[in-house]
Each structure stands twice: as C-alpha cells, then as structure tokens.
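Recall the central idea of this unit: under ordinary conditions, the amino acid sequence of a chain determines the structure it adopts. In this exercise we apply that idea directly, starting from the sequence alone.
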Amino acid sequence: MSTHALYVMAAYGVTFIVMAGLIGWLLTDRNARRRELADLEASGVRRRSDRAVEGRP
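Accordingly, the structure predicted from this sequence is:
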C-alpha cells in the first residue's frame, strides 16, 4: 500500500469513529430526554401550550 492509501484509510477510519460517537451520543441523549419528559408528565407537569388550548372556547 502506498503512503497516500494509508492516509486515506486513516482519514476514513477517524471519520467513522467520530460519526459513530456522535450518533451514539445523540441516541443516549434522546433516551435521557424521553425519560425526563415521562417523569415530568407522570408528576403532573404540563406544557404551557396545553394550558393555552384548554382556556379557549
């Protein structure tokens, strides 16, 4: 393999690792936000926009 090919393969490898890390981080954060919203809804906290809709005739 030439030096150029090694450089390209290393660049693809680093890019793959970074992208996989970002996707993993997003999925973990999404699950945490969903749990947080479920806890808030279970405790009776509602959105402000829900109150505005309820008050309209």
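The longest helix spans residues 3-42.
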